[in-house]
Write a structure and sequence with these properties.
The structure holds 3 protein chains of 3 kinds. Chain A is mainly alpha-helical. In chain A, 70% of the residues lie in helices and 3% in strands. Chain A has 11 helices and 3 strands, in the order H-H-E-H-E-H-H-H-H-H-H-E-H-H. Chain B is mostly helical. The radius of gyration of chain B is 18 Å and the shape is globular. Helices cover 78% and strands 0% of the residues of chain B. The longest helix of chain B is centred in the first third of the chain and has 29 residues. Chain C is mostly helical. Chain C has 25 helices and 7 strands. In chain C, 70% of the residues lie in helices and 5% in strands. In chain C, helix 3 runs antiparallel to helix 18, helix 5 packs antiparallel against helix 10 and helix 13 packs antiparallel against helix 15. The chains are: A mainly alpha, B mainly alpha, C mainly alpha.
Chain lengths: 315, 221, 664
Amino acid sequence: MNWGYFASQLFQSLLAVLLAPLMLGWVNQCRAWLQNRTGPGLLQPYRVLFKLFHKDAVLAYNASWLFRLAPYVVFSCMVLAASVVPLVATDLPFSLAADVIALVGLFALARVFMALAAMDVGTAFGSLGARREMLIASLAEPALLMVFFTPALISQSTALTTIVEQLAHRELHLYPSMAFAGVAFVMVLLAENARIPVDNPTTHLELTMVHEALILEYSARHLALMDWAHALKLMTYGAIGIALFLPWGIAEAGNWAMMPLSVLALLVKLAAGGAGLAVLEMVSAKMRIFRVPEFLGVAFMLAVLGMLIHFLLEV
Amino acid sequence: MNISFAHQMINLMAALLLLIAFAMLSQRRILRLIHLFAAQGLVLSLNTAIVAATIGQPELYRSALLTLFIKVLLLPWLLRRLIDRLNIRWDVETLVNIPTTMLVGIVLVIISFNLALPISQLAGTITRSTLGIAMASVLISFLMMITRRKAVPQVIGFLAMENGLFFAATSTTYGMPMVVELGIALDVLVGTFIFGIFFFQIRETFDSLDIHHLEKLKDRE
Amino acid sequence: MLLLHVVLAIALYWLVLGSIGLVIRIERRALARLLFPLGALGGLALAVVAYPALSGEPQSLVLPLGLPDLPFHLRLDPLAAFFLLLLGAASAGVSLFSAGYFEKGGGDDIRLICLQYHVFLAAMLMVLVADDAYLFMVAWESMALASYFLVTTDHRVPEIRRAGLLYLIVAHVGAMAILLGYGVLQLGQWNYTFDAMRANTLAPTWAAVAFALALFGFGAKAGFLPVHIWLPEAHPAAPSPISALMSGVMLKTAIYGLLRVTFDLLHQQMWWWGVVALIVGLTTAFVGVAFAAVQTDMKRLLAWSSIENIGIILTAIGLAILFHAFQMNLLAALALAAALFHSLNHALFKTLLFLATGSVMHVTHQRSLGKLGGLIRRMPWVAGLALVGTLAIAGLPPLNGFASEWMLFQAFLLSPGLPNSYLNMFVPVATAALALVVALAGYVMVKFYGIVFLGQPREEFADAHDAGPAERAGLLWLALWCVILGVAPTFVVITLDPISHMLVGATLQESLQQSSWAFLTAIAPERASYSPLIFLVVIVGVVLATFLLVRRFYHGRMRRSPPWDCGFPAQTARMQDSAEGFGQPIKQIFEPFFKIERHHPSPFDEQPQYSSKIEDRLWYWLYLPIVRFSERLSSFVGVLHHGRISLYLAYSFITLLLLLLLVR
């Protein structure tokens, strides 16, 4: 393990943390263009974070230490997740720390802390948000695991690094099971990142909130960390999608010569993904909360079907 | 195109066929069902064209064109007109909820693949592993017919069954004789016309297309 | 002196401790404060003694007690040693907690409780070291009876009496099945020692019968579907330390029994046994978690969650049987290690959670979730340690629950291809079901922790105070092991190697040695690796770094205000989710699995009330018909009872005549 590896890891983590609000800003800007508005600009999320960090934190009288600890824990879970996923390089030191199952567990940890923090203040909206978020999670998490298992079966490994290497460096082979897994992955991405059609990230109507209701009581630096973690999560999911379905262009760790190229490839792919997400959000309407289990049930079944197709056609 | 690439493309088409069959199972709006049916026809004709290009049988090109014309253009247009005149664009209700039907669908896939295993080992074509998928999509369309309440999705299920059978024929025996194919196509067309007539009759008698009302035709209570 | 002698001495020590209270007059506080910590010491000693026995040679002993031609045979081999370690570690924590718990409440006669408690512990120990069927059944029955008396400690409450009766009946049905199983295993040679049974080779049909009897019999004690019906009644009815022991340790003795019979006494398993075990395990796990999500009583919630975890353990065992039957021994070792690891983890975090509910009940005298809330401020220690338990049971990294579930997923995924194509396609569906169960467990635990400890108190508790030092010590012991086992799971897996070697003939040592101790791997590091240590270090590090950076570059100012709540001015505690409300989405989605009785208010009610009751369908489909059938049978036989003495004398006379005629 030479210093090149650790430097690459640090570079990737910092890149992810600094780039995440930009991706969120890009998605919002695309939505604005599609809606024929001018839009707030690509750097708006940075300005919002800056503003929030400067404010005084206002906490409810009965908020406990869990409430104050949760934003930090959620943020650090997302930083770890972004460090584990091969964004710009494979074979980084932290990539051995978590395989896809541990990655799903990491997202679950962050989500449980958010839900507990929401229930801490004891308002109706907190428990509403917690209940809805855990419901969506209990259906999206198995679907996500199944989506991961299809490439895991193809490359005979659950380590993301190995999956990327196997899928990128093999000759071009069409895997129908990956088609199923891809559709299911997009559905799970929409559900887990609180995008339309599952949840509206810009809603101010309380009964349509899921993610917003979880962070309703937060302000100032806590809210900034939660928002930043949310943006990091979206970017990490995008990176996972790229690693599974479009893995070309990710460098080997320590290969600094390839690094600018892989960063450029990452930016291009994330930009395309963000634009696609904006288009998806534009053409869909938000579903009733009780249609969401059906939506996620379909994603789950598609993912299981993908695994079955792998056994049927590709073994 | 070389064999292995063609093989992958055909596998992809088979997977897409199954994906569309599952999507039809989970679809609630009738218009989208018709679009999915048209997409299924497109996948079928593409598949026939690929098989034709690989093994060099020009007859299959004609078969592909026929499929394109009838299943992608004619039948969906007929169905569109039908539902426009019947004025039924509402959500389709199911007897059993959608995740359960999909679960049953998955079990059907497992069963049909295991049933098709000995046959596909006998067949000498390049597409034999897709026989299981074709059978599965037939069974899934049948399932769709069983679990729907309104009449139009049942028709679409019937037509989708025929799609599955066509795919099975293409994959194991490189297509059917043109006579058989034309005959089946004509049967399907005539069947659709008759269905349309029946729908109007049903709606006039019961004021609704819910097939539960047909149970009133029982002899005794 | 053999380790086995020390183990026996500990059993004797526990029995003596239990009887002290009956012999000498001590007042309640002194008894609780003195005897229970001594019992904890015994548990600790047991764990310390069992650890080296895990890697040693099997030791045997014959005691001159028991039947004339069947003295007590005892044996300490790696499998028994592991479960002894589990018993010792878990009971140490529970005994420490009980020192504080029984000091002030929890039952009328503390001397009897102390006796029954220590007899219970000693009986479980004897079950684990028994090497012949007779001692096994004696110890099994003692365990069942001791726990029955402990469950019915509060025997003045009718529900508790009813729960105890149900428990006793199902326990005895199970014991009969186990006894019949041993009868099949001894093949008519009248030699009931396990050694003789090991030497027997049974025909496939008889082996299947033995396996079925073992699955049913041990399942009745472990809580497999459909004989789980006693668990949600008995575990909440018992005092909390007893519920903890029952859920944490007693269910694992049943798992031990199943493993002993399936892998040790029956050499060759058939693959379809594995499929049956998988299906039963997955169904049990799913039903357990679905019912846990809709409970309104915190101890019933934990009891159903125990059923779910036992289902997961059985799934792992079924997978191990399947792999072993197809000679894939390395994967069988992986699945078996996952099953054993999860048993240990469940023993730790379930006892921790039940003990936490004990502290809560001690202070609030409430079991119902609808009357609790906001206890994190009044009981910080209990809440903090219960948080560790909640995160562990929800299967979240880097704690121990996740490590064993990770291993189980790896065992499912790394199966290269079973010979039967139906089975091959069954594996993804089974994996999907397991993933669903694990995700729903997170839901259940957020509900549990959130409603009990977080939010605003739904009722005011005048004297809510934190737990005493003994209780804290017990909780801390268990929570500490949850964290340690979570961060260093490789040590546990390496320790389990002798067991895998003994039962399935393969070990995981080579695959683990390919990477350092900080990484848990399955088969090979490139295929799968997980490092809980890095998780813990990075998460804690980034939390601290973010905290300091934010304070350095911005500020850490804070002020308090009423909650925002979207501007609603009136904020009462009743506006939070109740237990029914939090479980309502699961109730709606999985409605076919529950039997729901709803009482809706009518528009004309002056005080409208809504109530819904959720029951187990199996009670109405399976148990009530059996009960009615046996009542009918008894009423037929009851015809013979007239109460007239002359008729009874006539019965004896007729029997005598018949005997004289027949035995000429």
